[in-house]
From TrEMBL:
<dbReference type="Pfam" id="PF08032">
    <property type="entry name" value="SpoU_sub_bind"/>
</dbReference>
<dbReference type="GO" id="GO:0008173">
    <property type="term" value="F:RNA methyltransferase activity"/>
</dbReference>
<keyword id="KW-0808">Transferase</keyword>
<dbReference type="GO" id="GO:0005829">
    <property type="term" value="C:cytosol"/>
</dbReference>
<protein>
    <submittedName>
        <fullName>23S rRNA (Guanosine(2251)-2'-O)-methyltransferase RlmB</fullName>
    </submittedName>
</protein>
<feature type="compositionally biased region" description="Basic and acidic residues">
    <location>
        <begin position="21"/>
        <end position="32"/>
    </location>
</feature>
<feature type="domain" description="RNA 2-O ribose methyltransferase substrate binding">
    <location>
        <begin position="42"/>
        <end position="117"/>
    </location>
</feature>
<dbReference type="InterPro" id="IPR029026">
    <property type="entry name" value="tRNA_m1G_MTases_N"/>
</dbReference>
<dbReference type="InterPro" id="IPR013123">
    <property type="entry name" value="SpoU_subst-bd"/>
</dbReference>
<feature type="compositionally biased region" description="Basic residues">
    <location>
        <begin position="8"/>
        <end position="20"/>
    </location>
</feature>
<dbReference type="InterPro" id="IPR004441">
    <property type="entry name" value="rRNA_MeTrfase_TrmH"/>
</dbReference>
<keyword id="KW-0489">Methyltransferase</keyword>
<dbReference type="Pfam" id="PF00588">
    <property type="entry name" value="SpoU_methylase"/>
</dbReference>
<dbReference type="GO" id="GO:0003723">
    <property type="term" value="F:RNA binding"/>
</dbReference>
<dbReference type="GO" id="GO:0006396">
    <property type="term" value="P:RNA processing"/>
</dbReference>
<dbReference type="GO" id="GO:0032259">
    <property type="term" value="P:methylation"/>
</dbReference>
<dbReference type="InterPro" id="IPR029028">
    <property type="entry name" value="Alpha/beta_knot_MTases"/>
</dbReference>
Amino acid sequence: MKYDTSRSRKSTGKRQTHKKKYDETTDKKIENNPDVSSQEEIIFGKHAVMETLKKNKGINKLFYQKGLADSKISSIIELVKNHGGIFQEVPKSKLDELTQGANHQGLVLTVPPFDYQTIEDCLALAESKGQPPFLLILDGIEDPHNLGSILRTADAFGVHGIIIPKRRAVGLTGIVAKTSTGAIEHVPVVRVANIAQTIELLQNQGIWVFATDMAGEDVRQWNSQGPLAIVIGNEGQGVSPLVKQKADGIVTIPMVGHVQSLNASVAAGVLVYEVARHRMN
């Protein structure tokens, strides 16, 4: 059977509006640090900080490394001034402490907690662009680098939103923001209590949902031009059995090598590009 999402899907219910903005987060906090409160998140790295400032997101304070000056950092400091933010020159050891040793590139920005969006926000974004919805559902991704890479790919190829579970999965963090190189500011992320129930909600609104697994339909035979959501599984366990059961179908990426699996972010990249290729044609 060839999956064809260009066929219209009958909606089994009215579109449901999710008013609640999820603001819970599993981000690792910097405890007992007077420079960062429990109500703040940190963004670090030049690209991530610059994109945050461009989005005019509320900022609190910029820490920049003493003795490290270039045109990019100067531009960022100027933007912080324009936003009315506070900035402070500090030794590298302070930035290492704030980021727990991550590659901060000499910049740490403190901001209010990351905003999570709603499914309605994602659908509205697709509608505003005159495009059928294209969503990613991440079933238990735990590595913040994977989430950041998936956000970057999603931004590059026109994904309208990413759905993640509240529990047993990584949320939006400074490392995610850094890895996404600023894409975190452009791709809506929705946090839900139950992935299986969310799949049913999407299906009721006419969106086809496909899970990924080794035993599935060759993705090259897939017509993915209609309203669509792809489920990417956990790094170790893959897509959970219940979620696979709820999905409309299973697709797989054909491989010829000895290792018959891909990193979650790589698999997401291949699948997202395949959808984008169909839609651009």
